[in-house]
Design goal:
The chain has about 180 residues and is an alpha/beta fold. It has one domain: Nucleotidyltransferase, domain 5 (2-Layer Sandwich), CATH 3.30.420.10. It is built from five helices and five strands. The chain has a five-stranded mixed β-sheet with strand order 3-2-1-4-5, with helices on both faces. Helix 3 (about 105-115) packs across helix 5 and helix 4 packs across helix 5 (about 140-184). The longest helix is centred in the last third of the chain and has 44 residues, at about 140-184. About 35% of the residues are buried.
């Protein structure tokens, strides 16, 4: 499975692409941090981020796009920019016909480090180890985007299997109910 992880941010947006499957070694395909100047117009900044995300999707052809779920922060200005770029990632993936998944920061931390309260240094160290890199991806937005992709490689398969199992049970129940109506 190839996953494109997006750590949304209007000033710095991390984009990471990872190949992998549960129980198999992970492979780094691409990582980048797209920056926009704080003094640029908001529309111009969003266009830069949207174009970078669309380019990564077109270039690396992921199977799924994993985006960090925006959570409430005390700094409303920061959360607004993060939410705007997360929306861009969701739209770009949807336009490309790709499924989109959202993972919370604590889900990502738990998947990568084993602790939902890990700090950025711990996440970065584990991303470096899991992808067998010679050095830590910098800045932290790069590590965070890769961590999102890793989280989905590992958790996405389980989520997909659970969804398929629930759908199969529901389909079986519907068939049984239909047969019961026919035999009456």
């Amino acid at each position: 499975m190839r996953v494109l992880g997006v750590d949304p941010g209007i000033t710095r947006c991390g984009i990471g692409v990872v190949d992998g499957a549960p129980g198999r070694p992970l492979t780094l395909v691409h990582v980048d941090v797209v920056r926009t100047p704080a003094d640029a117009e908001i529309g111009d900044r969003l266009v830069v981020q949207a174009d970078a995300i669309a380019w990564a999707i077109d270039t690396y052809r992921p199977d799924v796009v994993a985006v960090e779920r925006v959570f409430s922060q005390h700094n409303v200005r920061t959360v607004m920019g993060t939410a705007q770029v997360a929306g861009l990632a969701i739209v770009a993936a949807t336009r490309a016909g790709l499924p989109v998944v959202l993972h919370t920061p604590s889900e990502v931390k738990a998947a990568v480090t084993g602790s939902g309260t890990a700090d950025k240094a711990q996440v970065g160290a584990m991303v470096t180890r899991l992808l067998r890199l010679s050095q830590l991806p910098k800045p932290a937005d790069a590590s965070d985007a890769l961590a999102l992709a890793i989280c989905h490689v590992w958790r996405g398969s389980a989520q997909r299997k659970r969804t398929e199992a629930v759908a199969a049970v529901a389909a079986g129940a519907a068939r049984s109910a239909a047969r019961a109506r026919i035999t009456r």
